[in-house]
Amino acid sequence: MSSQLATAGGPANPVPPAGKRKSVMGTRPWVAALFLLPAIVLLGALVVYPIGYSVWRSLYDADGSGFVGLGNYGDLFSDDATFTAVKNTAIWVAVAPALVTGLGLVFAVLTERVRWSTAFKLVIFMPMAISMLAAGIIFRLVYEADPDQGVANAVVVGVHDTFAESSVYPKARPSTESDLKASGGGAFTSTGTLSAGTPALVPLVGIAPNKVPGDPGDATSAEPSGDGVSGTVWLDFKLGGGGEKGAVDAGEKALPGIKVEAVKDGKVVASAKAGDDGTFTLPAAADGAQLRLPESNFAAPYNGVDWLGPSLVTPAIIGSYAWMWAGFAMVLIAAGLAGVDRNLLEAARVDGANEWQVFRRVTVPLLAPVLVVVLITLMINVMKIFDLVFIIAPQPSQDEANVLALQLVNASFGGGNNQGLGSAIGIVLLLLVMPVMIVNIRRLRKERRR
Does the keyword rRNA-binding apply (predicted)? Predict the structure, then answer.
């Protein structure tokens, strides 16, 4: 039959010559290559060539004139700055992805349990719309040491001052007319002793009258207090000058709240605080004791935590990274959570599992593929972290916060201007990223086969 059709009207499915065959998609190979050529050129120019040049450049010295072989790679492990960068990068890889993935998982679960889930997702995801530069500037202000400017220290100081008393006169000190002398630890103790019926005078200086905390009134001379010991604590200075040193003059400000102690043989036998007019009264036990102003009166105010100091700068920057990327993790995990079979969750509850057991033994295992995707993506991302560290870490602490990407820039274009060493760091960074990328590619291929 086929031979008759071929004889009558030619072959039904003529076979083209070997040189003119088309691919399975019906396109000639040279046409496909033509369309792929721009992408191949860009890939070669932006990826392949830079990698090859970096490998070649890493084998030469700073100015590229002398061949040093693997010398630059040897310097990586002998240079303190680079070693710190490797250590901090390892901390980033170990902590940041796990932290962000954990937060994303918690937020994703919460979005299914609150009515305002859309608003909640919007608030959590909003930082992703901010660039690293803007986020760095924001958190540089958040971590500002001054509690009046930095939000973090404002909160810490507020909580601290709620549970602990703070000094209101940190710059005050006894005047030269007083017999109070420094007695160690920031305290001042009198050389003489107190006497019942003779008011004690405690003149202080070191504070401008118009900068005395609160709104104190004028100081009042204390009256004798029978068997007890009375006295006055005041600021022995007034605007415009005048008056007698060591005496309570009209217009001089009281210093309410100052604590005074009566000390005998090194033991406190009585104590009191100055009132609104600066006067205080000690019981009869204070007779014959020395007067002491404890260090709590003059202690510097608590100013919070040095977030960007050498010891906390890396955790602080990781916190800002978590603020930015928790929304990314939440969206991906929430998408995976939406595909979880609810019957499995209900079956676990029917079998007697509580919510924590359902979450830990059912929800998390079912979300494992999504969690792995998020974790690997974040691991690749943090290996290249640069912007936040460069912007948030102040210059004195930048060496302690150093990471490989920042060290690459500093070595290549900083004070050393050693592009050979910088290229070596880039190749090491590429080698560190490659295993994670290979694992991710294999995982994607396995999922496609399913």
Answer: no
How much is the pLDDT for 138?
93
Q: Are residues 178 and 132 in the same domain?
A: no
**Which among 153, 62, 174, 84 is positioned nearest to 414, based on CA atoms?**
62
The confidence band for 6, taking pLDDT boundaries of 50, 70 and 90, is very low
What DSSP state is assigned to residue 44? I
Domain that holds residue 276: 173-297
Helices and strands per DSSP (H, E), number in the chain: 16, 9
CB 103 within 8 A of CB 322: yes
- Dump pLDDT digits (tens) for 27-44: 678 888 888 888 889 988
Residue of 389, 345, 386 whose CA lies nearest to 366: 345
User: CA-CA distances (angstroms) from residue 310 to 166, 384, 397?
Assistant: 26, 21, 5
Q: Please name which of 429, 378, 379 lies closest in space to residue 403, comparing C-alpha atoms.
A: 429
12 within some domain = no
CA–CA distance, 335 with 112 (Å, rounded to integer): 11
Q: Is residue 46 part of a domain?
A: no
